[in-house]
Design a protein that fits this description.
The longest helix is centred in the N-terminal third of the chain and has 17 residues. This protein is α/β, with parallel strands linked by helices. The protein has two domains: 244 residues, Thiolase/Chalcone synthase (Peroxisomal Thiolase, Chain A, domain 1); 149 residues, Peroxisomal Thiolase, Chain A, domain 1. The radius of gyration is 20 Å and the shape is globular. 33% of the residues lie in helices and 17% in strands. Strand 9, helix 11 and strand 10 form a beta-alpha-beta unit.
Length: 412
């Protein structure tokens, strides 16, 4: 098995249009949640979201090309540009078949579906764009990233609801560990803050309706949490085998040491109350790393701010770690970004890597009234300058799909 390392990260989030700005604002305790500006949400139960602000794809993509991409694909391509700039590397012609792409996307092109459906009803089928289908399909993010990078290795889209990004990282890690590739671009991208998207989650009563206080609405593990906040964006990582990274003199940010995946086999949208499936995924990642659970000192929680998810995740963490669960520094990035759905795992993997590399654990905002059943340490007092050695990043999605990545502070 090859050792797998992270050599670059990139992100576009509600906290900033690059990884460093997003990270700085995360540590500053800022919220990226505000009033919806993409459409008139006055008649919607939820009128707030974690939108990406001031995004200009033409900084990285030509205007013509950008028009032929959904927003989630634009995010992924722009992140790829930043990823390779940060890595100080381009894929050599001789290595193209050994570099691949796995980008998780949960829902795909809702913007295009809504726009083209309205046009179909108003003007008829002859007015539908020939680019409609290629633009909206979820795997187009991975496809366009592959084109941008010149990566001819595995080209995959993982679509597993809110676990899509983490499964993307896990598949990429597995391909390198097994020797199928030398380097992989991986993570997740999503943009579904649309009338249909918001209305759909409202119909499920999944979203917070704390419209008068947007910055306070996402409150994981708080007793007053009332639902999640939709977010959008992208988080990508460049993974390489240690041998490949060292041969090119790469700056190594962290090591990937474990991937766990499981299914709840329980319900379409609700986890079992004991969090068993979540626990299985965490245990699998730890087992693959061949470490004791007591060695894990940081968890980037899924922490959606929904009643059942936060409770079940807390129970699952206690099941896996026992008394050590109370010693783990836990954070919930969604308190500041909202829930990026298919991109959440990619973004949170980026933050987990930066946590290990920078020696700072982000805080969790808005836990003003801790839920007595969610009694673990979620760093509600703000960031902590602690050099964590292992960071577990959790993602759990509709359909009972669970995924966890375990990262390690890099040492030779």
């Amino acid at each position: 098995m090859n050792r797998v390392v992270v050599t670059s990260v990139s992100a576009i989030t509600p906290l900033g249009n690059d990884a460093d700005t997003s990270w700085d604002n995360l540590l500053a305790g800022k919220s990226g949640v505000g009033k919806i500006t993409r459409f008139d949400a006055a008649d919607y139960a939820t009128q707030i979201a974690g939108e990406v602000r001031d995004f200009d794809p033409t900084i990285f993509i030509g205007k013509k090309e950008a028009r032929r991409m959904e927003i989630f694909t634009q995010y992924a391509v722009c992140c790829t540009k930043m990823l390779f700039e940060s890595a100080g590397w381009t894929v050599p012609e001789s290595e193209r078949a050994r570099v691949g792409t796995v980008v998780g996307v949960g829902l795909g092109g809702l913007h295009s579906i809504e726009e083209m459906h309205a046009k179909l009803l108003k003007k008829g089928p002859s007015r539908i764009s020939p680019f409609f289908i290629p633009i909206l399909i979820a795997n187009m993010a991975a496809g366009q990233v592959s084109i941008e990078a010149g990566a001819m290795g595995p080209n995959i889209c993982t679509t597993t609801a809110c676990a899509s990004g983490t499964h993307g990282v896990g598949v990429a890690y597995t391909d390198i560990a097994m020797g199928r590739a030398d380097a992989m671009i991986c993570g997740g991208s999503e943009s579904t803050i649309t009338p249909l998207g918001v209305a759909g989650f409202n119909a499920m009563r999944a979203l917070s309706v704390r419209n008068d206080e947007p910055e306070l609405a996402s409150r994981p593990f708080d007793a007053d949490r009332t639902g999640f906040i939709m977010g959008e964006g992208c988080g990508l990582l460049l993974l390489e085998s240690l041998e490949h990274a060292e041969a090119r003199g790469a700056n190594i940010l962290a090591e990937v040491v474990g991937f766990g995946a499981s299914g709840d086999a329980h319900h379409m949208t609700a986890p079992p109350e004991d969090g068993a499936g979540m626990a299985y995924a965490m245990e699998a990642a730890i087992r693959e790393a061949k470490i004791d659970p007591s060695e894990v000192d940081h968890i980037n929680a899924h922490g959606t701010s929904t009643k059942l998810n936060d409770l079940c995740e807390t129970r699952a963490i206690k099941k896996v770690f026992g008394d050590h669960a109370y010693n783990i520094n836990i954070c919930a990035n969604k308190s500041q970004t909202g829930h990026l759905l298919g991109a959440a795992g990619g973004m949170e993997a980026v933050f987990a890597v930066k946590t290990l590399h920078e020696g700072i654990i982000p805080g969790t905002i808005n836990q003003d009234n801790p839920d007595p059943e969610c009694d673990l340490d979620v760093c509600a007092d703000g960031p902590r300058e602690i050099q964590a050695n292992y960071a577990l990043s959790n993602s759990f999605g509709f359909g009972g799909t669970n995924a966890c990545m375990l990262f390690k502070r890099f040492t030779r």
